[in-house]
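Entry for the shared binder. Reason: the reviewer on the internal report wants the predicted structure included alongside the sequence.
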Amino acid sequence: MKKLLFNIEFIDRPSWDEERDDHYIYAKITIGEFTEILQISLWHWTIDEYVRHWKDAYVRIKDKPNCSYAFVTQMYDPQNFEYIRVWPVYREGDKVYFHEMLLLSENIGSQFDINKLSEYVGDREVENDNGAKPSEWSLTSKDFIESNGFADDLKVSIS
């Protein structure tokens, strides 16, 4: 079986963080050789809602050769939040670029709208106003698309 070069998978059982008063589950994102462990809040979205969103995001990016969208990895109440953590994905022809970003309520306005996710993440920035380059990971579009097992087979894999 070919290794998926892009994947998000749950790797633990849901837990409770008393200090943050939050229900969460650990997940792992894989982009090529890069992996990162994510703490996914279950305060507002359920596991199934994340899975549906990730599958939808994957299909949107796969089907458009030039687009920006994002995988939400920490969703809070869209009417009362400090931030929402996302992994923006910028598909530019034969390359797909990934960043990690906090969407701050002060930059979005009073209510987060999932249908405006492309607007929130904007265009891919290769450097900020100070000339610093953001952390960025990339795959070929072909490798991203061939990771289609992600959309078909995404499930909670408890270790």
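Summary line for the report: The first helix runs from residue 47 to 63.
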